[in-house]
Structure formats: C-alpha cells, structure tokens
C-alpha cells in the first residue's frame, strides 16, 4: 500500500496578538493511496489548518509532513493536489468552462489539451452542457460541483476538500455525497475531506479522523469496515450506526476535555 500523506508528530502553532494558538499538536497520520479520509471535530480543532498544511498554505512549527514523499512545497509545485473550498469561489464574470480553464491557463497548458480536460472534468461532475453558462445561472450544488471540476482540472491524484457541502441543504448534500463517492470510485483519487456532519463522514470515508481542540489533536482514527459500494440507505444499517456512535463518543470525549 502506498502512503500518500504522512504526518509525524506534527505541530502547528499560530502566533497571534493574544499569544500562541496551538492549532495542531502531535498529529500522527498515514493516508494511503485511494483512501477517502474525513476530518471531523468541533470548531477550532485544526481541521482546516491540517488541510492547509498539506497544501503548503501553512507552515508546520514541528514534526514532519510529506505528500507523495515530498515536502508540501515540492508537492504544490508538482501539482500533487486540487483544493476545494467551502464557498465555490467561481469568478462570476467567467463562464463555468473558463473558470475551470483558469488554473490550466496560468500553468500554460496547451489549448487543445485544455479543451479536452474541461470536457472530461465537466463529465465527471455531471455538468455536461454547462460549459458556457455563468456561475449565477447554476444552483448552489451545481456551483460546488463546478468548483470540484476546477480542482480536478490538473488530474492531480489528491483532492483536498474543506467542507465543500456545508452550506447546502440536506437533499442536495445527499445527492452530492453519492456523486462524490461515484467520482472517487471512478478516478481512484485520494481524498481529504473536512466536515462537521457525522453521517456525511461515515457515509463517505474509508478512514475517519476525529479531532479535538485546544490544542488541536487527533483523538480517534476509525478504519471503516463498510464496503466501497454504498447506497444511501446503508445509513440505516447497524454497521453504519455503530461507526456513527463511535464518532459521536469521540467527539463527546473531546468536548469533556474543555470543561
Ligand atoms: N491564520 C491564523 N492565525 C491565527 N490563528 C489561526 C489562524 N487560522 C486558524 N487559527 C486558529 O487555529 C485554531 C484551529 O483553526 P482551524 O480553522 O484549523 O480549525 P477548524 O477545525 O477547521 O475549525 P472550523 O470547523 O471552525 O473551520 C483555531 O483556534 C483558530 O482560531
């Protein structure tokens, strides 16, 4: 099994006007190729910080972190991952196709390759035919799918997603969760996914990382026994509910630490 992301005793402390904030403390985690890893925990437990450290957007203050065996900086330069933010962040004056093309243009991709990539990724997120539409002509869920398509444009092996569906209603979210699993199965990407939702984490993941704040740390890592193929009604099975229960217990323990 290939380890794609490896954190050893990782620390990250922000220096603020109110003193140091220990956002990550002693984080040890191995993420293997093809894993779907969810990070769940209360606000401030360092989920986003960890994702940003992987993406070289924050600098760890201790320990080691490698991405595809490289430093996060080298991994960023070799375009090892795509990043999806909570808000879709599409440019309103650019069409969906032009939004997806933008990172490719910046990197100087040949024009012919670009057209083909845009078609491919739109197909992956089921937005065929929307290339010429503007973001405001799409629903919130479709915009978020377009932003996933943009993150897939480079065909990076790793997809980092920071609460991509947090602002969407439950029905749309269920639908996108199903589609994301299908995309993951088709592409065999390694996915790091931040969420506040227990059912979402359990439904999507092969590995669930439960975190706790002050200092931000990992309190439980659950390797999911659920099969890769997951219809939505798997959420009513005893196996699913058992994992959800373990996550809830882990979160509760983390909270007790604060009292
Ligand atoms: N740029 C920054 N400067 C100073 N402190 C920061 C910075 N970014 C995050 N923090 C602090 O680090 C801690 C971890 O923040 P982080 O955003 O990683 O948590 P999170 O688990 O993603 O939270 P949420 O669920 O609210 O997004 C918090 O206490 C936060 O206030």
From TrEMBL:
Gene3D superfamilies (UniProt xref): P-loop containing nucleotide triphosphate hydrolases (3.40.50.300)
Leading EC class: hydrolase
Enzyme Commission code: 3.6.3.-
Example of a GO MF term: ATP binding
Protein name: Aliphatic sulfonates import ATP-binding protein SsuB
Domain ABC transporter, first and last residues per copy: 5-234
SUPFAM superfamilies: P-loop containing nucleoside triphosphate hydrolases
Keyword Nucleotidyltransferase: no
Keyword annotations: ATP-binding, Hydrolase, Nucleotide-binding, Transport
SMART domains: AAA
Pfam family, one: ABC_tran
Similarity comment: family membership: Belongs to the ABC transporter superfamily.
